[in-house]
Amino acid sequence: MKKIVLSLAGVMAAVAFAPEASAIPAFARQTGMACSACHYQHFPVINGFGRAFKEGGFTMMGAEEKIEGEGLSIPANLNLALVGNMSYAKTNGPANLTNPAVPHGAAVPTTAMTKTSNNGSLQIPQQVSLFAGGRVAENIGFEAEINIAGPGTTMGTSTGTGLIRFKMPFVFDVAGVKAGVVPFSTGLGVADSMEVLNTGAVAVHAFNQSDMPAISAQQYIGTATPANGAALVASNDSFFANVARWGASQGVGASGGPTSNYVRGAYLTSIIPGFDSAIGFQSWSGTSVQDAAGAIGPNTFTGLVSPNGAVNTKAAAIDAQMMGDVAGMPLTLIASFADAPGSANAASVNLFNTSNLSRRSANFGAELGVIPNVATVQFGLRRAYSGVQDAATGANLTDNAVMLGATYAFALNVRAELTYSRYSGGMYSAAQQQIQQNLAGAYMGNQQIMMDLAFGF
Description:
Blueprint (H helix, E strand, L loop, with lengths): L1 H15 L8 H7 L16 H8 L10 E4 L2 E4 L4 E12 L5 E2 L15 E2 L5 E17 L2 E10 L3 E2 L2 E2 L3 E6 L2 E5 L2 E10 L25 H4 L1 H5 L5 E9 L3 E9 L12 E10 L5 E15 L20 E3 L2 E12 L2 E12 L18 E13 L3 E15 L6 E3 L1 E12 L2 E11 L5 H11 L6 E10 L1
Antiparallel strand pairs: 1-2, 3-6, 3-25, 4-5, 6-7, 7-10, 8-9, 10-12, 11-12, 12-13, 13-14, 14-15, 15-16, 16-17, 16-18, 18-19, 19-20, 20-21, 21-22, 21-23, 23-24, 24-25
Helix pairs in contact: 1-6
């Protein structure tokens, strides 16, 4: 019962409080180029040039002055940026005050009551982060994000203030291929070690930041979990590859070794004239030990709990993208399918799915620039199985979504986003509504409106 109740709560939390990924003006300062040089339509989606900048380890510079000497080549200034967002979320469940720790029907102390997004949730700001990034040496770069205000959420789970993500690519030219190693620590999943597609394979490249699980299968199954380790990366104009060893923990004091595996491959092609296209796969495997025993990672669906903190890290995904102009308007198309196997018992808990049934999703997303570089319209579609078992029939409850969105850029680094999402399937049946209302004291509804203003300077 508990896992059924918390499943929908996890989805709504992931939707309402997803991390706001943005372009980093620090890189614009380093390269001397506008944000549109690296981003397609708007941040955070990257184009071919932005992909090359990442694959080069963030080391490319423009006219900015450098300090150079024997074995030294760094920008004259450390390039920083403040990036954040403010948001309003409204779900259509019954407006009420709830305290999940108090049984439904019992008296709720006024000091313990909290409003849900059914009442409307306004956050100004939702989150503000300090970004730093750029060149460390000729073949070494870095990127870091430090949360300084707001919950510091990672797919619905508060990480508080402090370091959210850090990577330091060592990249070299080897026979026409960019190749190297990337030590990393991140709250956005091992894919954040290095990723160049815009399919939602990693949250920081999704074109809609308000409801990423509607357009990305990888984000739906919950691969954005704390991870630290090292990745071997290689790329050229035709392919991108990432092979990483990682552990399910993050930051200073992280325990356990990098005993899990991650493999990413993508084929980059211009087979359709005028379109930047790619198709790829991802594979997560192995086992890992988390920092706290039994502390299953964010955006998972509470069910089995590992007694010793050891978890399996099993999932797989395929994805594809196309980006190009249609009738003078920029168009982004993405598709993905991902699956996280169920957890058989407490001795084999899957970090990405603690239910005993498979959690899988097929997603499609589209964004059309109706006013190029200014305004877009968006569409997302999800057909998923939640991994939650129906108490009456034993069926794997479906969890579908339709998302409509629009963005407007007041400036290249200030963007408004409006998103409407409607959910359907077994997860939203009358029986499931009643279960959540009875056990958790709140039903979050099957519709959501999100208004978001993202900024970076």
